[in-house]
Amino acid sequence: MAEITRNGAKGQTLNEYLTVMRQRYLAIDDGWNINPESPDGLAIAAWCEALANLDEGVIAAYHSADPNSAAGQQLDRIAAFAGIKRNKATFSTSTVIFKGVPATLIPFGTLVRNKITNTLWATDNNVTIDAGGSATVNVTCTTSGSQTANVGALTIIATPIGGITAVNNETSESPGRDIESDNAFRIRRNESVALPGSNQVDNMYAALVNIDSVKQARIYENDNGQVDENGVKEHSMAIFVDGGSVNDIINAIAAKKNPGCGLNKYNTFPNKITEDTKTPLGNPVSVTFFRPELVPIYVRVEISSNNKFDDENIKRAIVHYTTYGFDETKGFSKLGFRIGESVGAGRIFTPVNYIIADNGFVNSITIGKSWDETRGVVNVKFNQLGVFATENIEVVYV
């Protein structure tokens, strides 16, 4: 039977149980017919299978108390001790520009359709066409997960409104995420143990990445007396957050920020958000953070094989890997590309090889900021985030 000792848990395999059980039967009568096809042989097999399953259950229960091996609901329970919950699926977001008659109201929830993927995107708030005949508003996809919207894809008005003549998105989407996987949740839990701590950068990061719908965060601290190489002001932090509601982010920063450290309120980094709020004890504070600039990455994959693979499956695997990392086995990155991280084509071989390695190989992978670029590395600035979409990936066979 399974044992739990100071060195861990140990059980017996099905073959080990079969060997012991057969020896004991033959010790009673060495002429006993216990061949596998005999009635007694079948009974021995059934008992041994049940015993081996019990051992596996005991060992699984033992390891489920370890956050590095727990999975599913048990991992949720372990993380709950630190006040951390698994992230639910999030929704892709983008910004669209409506054209039409001045003073026309576009209500909250107005739907726009993606002309390529047919997904629907709803406006986040009411907006009115200005005197120049346009109105800009954020939209959120109604389907969760990594739904894409390339520049110029959101052009169909799905909710007809009198006075509205056109709609378009001049920037790419910020992709959503599927429900958090065990590996991703495990990594975030390990990063979040500083949530109640006193180190400002660590506990602020932990607070930010545990906000609903936040996909990732990056904090740059400059504790020197001069502006650093990124343009971060002296004695300050620059906080970049992808996803999440503005109000939740502002409150999290206000709760964790220490006195005397600036937040680059007067910096000229793009996508700046500044609001006056109060700390949890009611002291006034001005909070500033930034959204990362999204950089669409275009990918060309050349495959050498006599077989034809499911190209859409390959594209989805690349998008998943660049967002979440590689969950299938150990030894590979468990994180996608992060804010401020340059994108290397070499990392993209991993998800493609996982699909095609049995019947072919990757001849080359090139990437760029447009179809015209063919690079091995796309340099991403400290405040940018490389994003991938299936429609920006081409698979060819050579």
UniProtKB/TrEMBL annotation:
Pfam families documented for this protein: Baseplate_J
InterPro entries reported for this sequence: Barrel_Baseplate_J-like, Phage_Baseplate_Assmbl_Protein
Domain Baseplate protein J-like barrel: 95-171
PANTHER family: PHAGE-LIKE ELEMENT PBSX PROTEIN XKDT, PROTEIN JAYE-RELATED
Protein's name according to its UniProt entry: Phage baseplate protein
